[in-house]
Amino acid sequence: MQSSSFLPEDHQTLPDHPGVYKYFNEENELIYVGKAKSLKKRVSSYFNKNTGVNLKTRRMVKEIVRIEITLVDSELDALLLENNLIKKIQPKYNILLRDDKTYPYLLITKENFPRIFPTRKLIPKRGTYFGPFASVKAMNNVLDLIRELFTIRTCSLDLSYLKINEGKYKVCLEYHIGNCQGPCVGKQKETDYLKDLEHAKHILKGNLGIAKSYFKQEMQLLAENLEFEKAQKMKEKLDLLEKYQAKSLITNPSISNLDVCTLVTDEKYAYVNYMRVKNGAMITSKNVELKKRLDESEEELLITALIRLQDQFQSDAEEILVNIEPENPIDGLQLTVPKIGDKKKLIELSLKNALYYKKEKALLQGLNQDKKDRVIKQLQQDLSLQEIPDHIECFDNSNIQGTSPVASMVCFLNGKPAVKEYRHFHIKTVEGPNDFASMKEIVGRRYKRLLEEEKPLPKLVVIDGGKGQLSSAVEALAELGIYGKMPIIGIAKRLEEIYFPGDSYPIHIDKKSESLKLLQRIRDEAHRFAITFHRKVRSKNAFGTQLTAIPGIGEGTAERLLKHFKSVKKIKEASEEQLTEIVGSSKAKTLMEWKEKNKEAVS
């Protein structure tokens, strides 16, 4: 693969070749990744006169300052590369597949007499992983089947030949009840054990037919040798396997290996159902939600989800059934829209799942919105507010023994944290630990700025503290001439009392009330935000003091060093050349001399 960089105005010089294009903004941030059969035609389409039908696309094009392309051999290669980049970087204008869960896998370990057990951590060197499974229940069903069919050990002993031969171990209860054949004491050969393990792998891959043939052949062979008890055990295992297959059978067993992917959409989202079918049995079913970022077609959304899900579930299906006829077929990706028969029934089943998922999401979204509306309306009643408090800001101070005093403001919109609106404050005008004066300073600074920028004031201001902190905040609002223009309350931590300005007695909201829980959550978030910032500042000040104690190193130099190296330890480990790049040769020599004098501390 070859990569090259271009300016937006040079888009006409791009090659007429399959590949992936990446758009970067002024901050050199990757904002969009796309694939193309012809890079020249596709990229040029963003910059021609017809561009801009969609507002989001217009906005993205304005941000582009650099284009990077990677040439590949085929459109399918471009699609796979695009998928990997989007999954890894998640550019802000690409389709977002909402799926932040970690799924369970079954791991077959790399060791003597390998084990099979569930895990959610993927560490390739540990062994071979099968999955992911869409649910723990589905995974446990397969694992239980394997343990009933085969005697795979469940212990974690190190079964090296040396330890087995030295007689390090004794058989456990699993051996006595017939779940293990005792490889730890040499009662089972590894070749026989690995034969069972190989059949277990076929089951994990969904190839039940191979395991069924094995049990059938063993049963017939044992019967011919008049070993009827052993033959009966094989028959029971065969029946168990057929019963398991019958449970998951959804269509004709002759349908051997295919994927099914269907999509339905609304204005903002797409809802996808993905199924893997082997030998007529559904071995995976998964619903996902995609958030549209630009003006993507249904075909683009479907293919994005399909490639991501096939990658996630390690699909090797050659045929994929879909409900949307592809207008631009991709070589190497066999998409089929079945019209009749069992395959058509699979599409109908998948589509039913996608539609149900869409309905479920819409219902959940409605319930969540209803709950948020209900809580802030309840808060309005409990506090006797004239307006619904859909914009709440909360302030908190943080200092320990007067050191590094800081403060925070958190913002909640419609009952949800609006993290982008959070603010940190360094206390500038107050000396020593004075919470009241600090509160007056930060409230005054916050609303002076909002007034200057002509931004809307909140519908409710919450002060973390009792009457003293609340009175200080009121003074700040009065000096700005906005006291009375927005309600302000204080919440005391000890008894969760709510104070209003001028009232001697607090009001109490029912401890089980959703509105009190919302206020507590806002207060706790402001406290967390302030404490986190305080620790960061205190740590930085401590490091800075250690450096500024060195003759010739001032605060500016210490700050530059800490910004680059992140810690005093790394500064101590840096070479003279590295230090020179940051602070110049003279100060680098000063630091090297200091390091030489403090060798023991460095080591």
From TrEMBL:
Which CDD domains did the record assign? GIY-YIG_UvrC_Cho (cd10434)
Q: Describe the location of the GIY-YIG domain by residue ranges.
A: 16-95
Task: Choose one Gene Ontology CC annotation of this protein and give it.
Answer: cytoplasm
InterPro entries in UniProt:
GIY-YIG_endonuc, GIY-YIG_endonuc_sf, GIY-YIG_UvrC_Cho, Hlx-hairpin-Hlx_DNA-bd_motif, RuvA_2-like, UVR_dom_sf, UvrABC_protein_C, UvrC
Tell me the keywords, alphabetical order: Coiled coil, Cytoplasm, DNA damage, DNA excision, DNA repair, Excision nuclease, SOS response
Q: Which GO terms describe its molecular function?
A: DNA binding; excinuclease ABC activity
Record's subcellular location: Cytoplasm
User: For the UvrC family homology region profile domain, which residue ranges apply?
Assistant: 338-477
Q: Which SMART domains match?
A: GIYc (SM00465), HhH1 (SM00278)
Q: Under which name does UniProt file this protein? A: UvrABC system protein C
Family stated for the protein in its record: Belongs to the UvrC family.
State the protein's purpose.
The UvrABC repair system catalyzes the recognition and processing of DNA lesions. UvrC both incises the 5' and 3' sides of the lesion. The N-terminal half is responsible for the 3' incision and the C-terminal half is responsible for the 5' incision.
Q: Which organism is it from?
A: Algoriphagus aquaeductus
